[in-house]
Amino acid sequence: MAVLGDSGLPRDQGRRDALHHRERMRRKITEQLRERIGEEDIIAAGPEKRIRVPIKGTRRWQFILDRGLEQGVGGGDGEPGDIIGPAGGQPPGAGEAGLEPGEELYEVWLDMDDVEEMLFSELALPRLKPKQQANAQSTEVVFDDLARQGPRIDKKATLRENLARNARRGRTRLGGIEKPDMRFLSYRERLLPRHKAVIFLAMDVSGSMDAGRKRMARLFFYWCVQFLRRRYDQTEIVFVAHTTEAREVTEEEFFNRAESGGTRVSSAFEVVERIQRERFPAEDWNIYVLHVSDGDNFAADNARALELIERLTPICALVGYLEVDPHAGSWSHPGHKLSRFYEQSAGDLPGFAFAEAEDERELWPALKKFFAKDDVEAAVR
Amino acid sequence: MTAYGLADLQRIDDRCRELAASELGLEAAEVIYHLVGPDEVYFAAANGLPARYSSARWGAQFESDYGRYRAGEGRIYELIFNTRPVHAYLMEGNSLVAQTLVIAHCLGHGYVFETNRWLGAVDREIMPRVISAAERIADYMGAHGRDAVEDFLGACHAIAIHQPQAQLLRRAPTPETEHRPGRYDELFPEEVAAERQRLAHERDALRRRFPREPEQDLLRFIERHARSLEDWQRDVMSIVRSEQSYFLPQLRTKILNEGAAVLAHQEICQRLLLPAGEYWEYEQLNASVVQPHPGQANPYNLGVELLREIMRIATDPDEDERERWRWAGEADPLERVRTVLRDYDDEALLREFLTPKVCERCRLYAFERTAGHARRIRVSTREADTVRDLLVRHHSNFGIPAIEIVDADFRGHGELLLQHRHDGIGLDPEYARGTLVEMATLWGKACTVQTIRGRDTERPVWFTGHPGGQTERHDEAPGSD
To answer: pTM of the full predicted structure?
Structure first.
């Protein structure tokens, strides 16, 4: 018999391999998106938009002859001189990107939703603690108890009881299961902890923040806000803008208004501290503070700023500072950049983290530093 | 569509086999047919062999081909593997007429597998090795992480095709290392002494050169001589290399093999005396198999036209053809075809039988790429000599550039130096850089290739790839630093 019905081929291996391929793609895309979070087309794309993402490192390299010079042989219509286009070309970006025969997957179209999902899967609010609040409790049902009666039998526990009862009577085997052996799963209602969090975003909008620096600061906060909204929909966000004076502003103002004037960083922390005391008591809230500036502070104010930070860190899960354009000369007090000052005076202050971003590609590492996922597990326990 | 069962297919196989043997003289190897669903057909097609190791590489192919099948663009009718016994996979849901064509087609393949001298060189007992390799690679993925193994596999595949049988060897002449005595030597004692010394240096350098002879087998060379490889990595390299060597003879005989299969299905189906409706369906299917492809010579069409040209020369040659082939006009046409199927590969077949008549019937043309549009082409000529030269050149090395390792201690740092033995066209710079990086991750140190710039044979250019991913271009020979 030379005709068989069964192939012996693994039935769903093709799909599994395809899945592995997709996972690899996804990882490569994520790696490359990180470097591109500053690019216009990604920022400009709203949540409904799709963006085209070239993927490096997915081509199947081979030594081939110079593609432009290669000649070949084809068949069909056409006189010398005629130009023949690709037969049956697909509209660009139609659905899932596929491979043309002999061509490599090179670009994919992604929904911004997917882009954010990929990026944000690597971030988390650090040291997030369950904070209970009387008016915001919810419960869940957990089956984690045993009872002598109930709707759901626990076979393993029942067999264990039977074994123990037989052993007590000198028989070391299973058998003769009776009512006293029966064990049932029992449930209880458990209070669910709420992870309530507030994050203060404080931005330097003084005159020294030129267009490039402002753009960096806003980009950074844009991704902070996107991340928080997507991952922690219960999180409150407070926007604070400061020059020599600081005040709470709306999100709209925060991202769009420019001001001028000098810089007094401590003013921002004063406002943060006041709002926190009035509206977000530390026993109910996880508190995060992020401040972005170019570091051109009044030198005399640095100590005051640090004093306020030292007061905030014990009640905050994190106080973070990002300096944009850190190597640009400080025209007011050369060498007195805030980053240098923090480095010398607060390098090992617990709960305080600072980062520098020279250009947009360094925003992602900064985000990762502040929203580091690693110590979450340890912190929650 | 008429319902049919395995018994119907068996009957068709028996009948076709009988016709192939009695009417065409094609005694095909036994073929085991499996009737399978599209999932399985596309899985086996993507992997190249059934039961091969699991890899995202095949997954990408599966996803793309299977996706196009589901979108109604293209369909695989049959898959056949040159193993012993031969296994073929028929797609469920095809009409009985389509299955008849496919079974007759497979008998052509079966004959070539059994008799062709190039395909005979293949290890047809490969399946146990393939299965054991799949198990080992799955183990490595468990032990070292799936990604690490996939990356390594990808790097191996980038150069696996560069094996000696894949290329016609074009060796560089060995440099002269002895001073040839001349009649005026005594007049120029100093010059002669200097020349002797220079040659002695060269001899010395040659003695220390490694490899002593340029090495075409890139993967094997690295597997044997790279310093920093782990055992599993060497094993993966040898798996990729040996599976690739199984596919090379098939690449070399693609046109011949498909030609034989089409000839078999055409000749057999003619003799089956199908009822009119079924014959009409057969004709449509046959036409879709042999229609010309823009931008690529259709191997099914070209193959069968070449074989039919041989049959015509055997029975009805013109004067020139009588001159050229001793057997012209006096041979049994099918006997001539069987001889060619046994002894030829694509290059020989094209070189000898791609006549102007065949070019015309296949409507072949030579084309060039248009600047800026990789997928748009300009027809350059329909002249048969040009078309033949191009096709022969492509099939003499499957369009794969000839690359050799010439120095394994390049720049005194244990780097690899490769030489592209060009044919008048240089390597693609982007792809050269990408491939060199893959190669450098295998070798553990930088790899450099010397090629030429475009068509400018006077201007050499060097590309270097580093294990970390950086690449460089050098316009002067990169020296030691």
So the answer is: 0.70
